[in-house]
Design a protein that fits this description.
Elements: H1 3-12, E1 15-16, E2 22-30, E3 36-46, E4 51-56, E5 59-67, E6 70-75, E7 81-86, E8 97-100, E9 105-109, E10 114-122, E11 130-132, H2 135-141, H3 146-151
Antiparallel strand pairs: 1-2, 2-3, 3-10, 4-9, 4-11, 5-8, 5-10, 6-7, 6-9
Length: 155
């Protein structure tokens, strides 16, 4: 891990995330009934440590913060493959924020170096809302997306 990345991880108190990358939960607003209204994390992705394909049962909004552009790869419930590039170069089609709708299968990559984003879920993220996919399951369902599925799943 290079020095810039080590400084982000140490300085922000980030920890490895089960889906890949590094994260830290910053906010969790809880109702009187104990349900999370929203949650917000910082998420650092590396070129060799992407976010692997997973699905949430809540919407997740991504916000670009620093580093290289982050590509969010999505497979919609009807099997369509989408890409969104989060970054500062709006003339090149990058966006500063993007909402991944609940039910989409998604992961994210950085081509070089690192990308730092924020992610906010509403209602709030809970691990029971999270499903990390196995390669064989996605390849069986979406063989037409073999290349990206192979890249964003663990064997």
């Amino acid at each position: 891990m290079n020095q810039d990345i080590q400084q982000w991880v140490a300085g922000l108190g980030l920890e490895p995330h089960v889906e890949g990358g590094y994260y830290k939960q910053l906010y969790k607003a809880v109702t009187g009934e104990g349900q999370a209204q929203y949650t917000s994390i910082l998420f650092l992705l590396l070129e060799d440590n992407p976010s692997h394909f997973h699905r949430l049962s809540v919407d997740e909004v991504w916000y670009y913060h620093a580093g290289q552009a982050v590509t969010v790869h999505e497979i919609t419930p009807d099997g369509q493959y989408l890409q969104t590039h989060l970054g500062p170069d709006i003339q090149a089609g990058q966006v500063l924020q993007h909402c991944v709708p609940k039910g989409h299968i998604f992961g994210s990559t950085v081509e070089t170096g690192y990308g730092l984003v924020g992610c906010m879920c509403s209602p709030g993220f809970e691990y029971e809302d999270f499903k990390l996919f196995q390669r064989a399951d996605l390849l069986a369902a979406y063989p037409e997306h073999k290349d990206i599925i192979t890249r964003l799943t663990r064997g």
